[in-house]
Structure formats: structure tokens, C-alpha cells
Recover the amino acids of this structure.
């Protein structure tokens, strides 16, 4: 069995979204932030052994205690690379570290299902790399301060 480390890429600063805080730190209608919702999804999967969050240095204090937090880069690829380097240098002290899977996930997609995570972890037992594609069926938007969804 391989070790599965989830890396939540949350390093954006929200410049396109406006309103001050990055979108991953904004509350959803249920009161949880996008980041919290994403973390809860990964915590609910028993095949995920560890979670790391990649965050812009100015917002690292928003990552809950007990969760590994890594400083992001200027671009997405740099944030991903920072996480891979951190895992290679700090989290793989076991002689079986070559059996570690890294699952990179965009925090802006917080509603990942337990089934998808389970399927990915199981597929990584026999494949070197996996990607997930889910057709978009819903559109979420805000009108006059209220969340709406179309499907």
C-alpha cells in the first residue's frame, strides 16, 4: 500500500475575484470557507494519509493548526514544485518513500467527492499518474448578494 499525500493548492491571492480576501478564504453559503470545505473532503477519505496546503505567505496563518503549510510560488507550477520538494525533503524520512503518491488538488474545486479521491488513490496503486476530468454541469453565481446555481 502506498502513502497518499494530498496537496491542496491554495496559493492564489484573489486579485481577479476582488473583495479583499482570496476566494479560498471566503465563506460558502454553509459558513465554511472554500479551504475548510476542501480540507473536510480530503479528511473524510481514509486513503489520504496526510494533507499539505500550499498558501501565499501572507495568508499562511489561515491554515488550521495541525495541517502542513507550505509557502506558494508566484505561479501555480512553482507552488506545485515547492510542495513536491517539501515532501521529498521533509515528509519522506521512511526508506519506503518511493511509494509515496502526491495528489495535487486546486482548492478552488472544494466539492471533490470521496469516490473520486478513493478512485484516484486506488488507480495510483497500478499507474504512475492519474488526472481527473469531470464535466461541468452546474454554474454558480451571485445575484444581488445571493448565491444561485443553474444546472
Amino acid at each position: 500500500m502506498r502513502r497518499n499525500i494530498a496537496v491542496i493548492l491554495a496559493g492564489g491571492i484573489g486579485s481577479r475575484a476582488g473583495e479583499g480576501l482570496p476566494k479560498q478564504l471566503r465563506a460558502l453559503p454553509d459558513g465554511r470557507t472554500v479551504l475548510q470545505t476542501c480540507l473536510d473532503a480530503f479528511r473524510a477519505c481514509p486513503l489520504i494519509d496526510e494533507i499539505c496546503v500550499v498558501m501565499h505567505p501572507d495568508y499562511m496563518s489561515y491554515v488550521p493548526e495541525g495541517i502542513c503549510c507550505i509557502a506558494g510560488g508566484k505561479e501555480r507550477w512553482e507552488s506545485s514544485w515547492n510542495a513536491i520538494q517539501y515532501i521529498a525533503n521533509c515528509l519522506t524520512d521512511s526508506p519506503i518513500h518511493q511509494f509515496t503518491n502526491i495528489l495535487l488538488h486546486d482548492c478552488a474545486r472544494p466539492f471533490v467527492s470521496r469516490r473520486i479521491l478513493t478512485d484516484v488513490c486506488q488507480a495510483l496503486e497500478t499507474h504512475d499518474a492519474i488526472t481527473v476530468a469531470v464535466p461541468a454541469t452546474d454554474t454558480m453565481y451571485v445575484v444581488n448578494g445571493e448565491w444561485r446555481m443553474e444546472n
About this structure: The first strand starts at residue 3 and ends at 10. The CA atoms of residues 90 and 101 lie 15 Å apart. The first helix runs from residue 34 to 43. The beta strands are 3-10, 50-55, 68-71, 100-106, 139-143, 146-150.
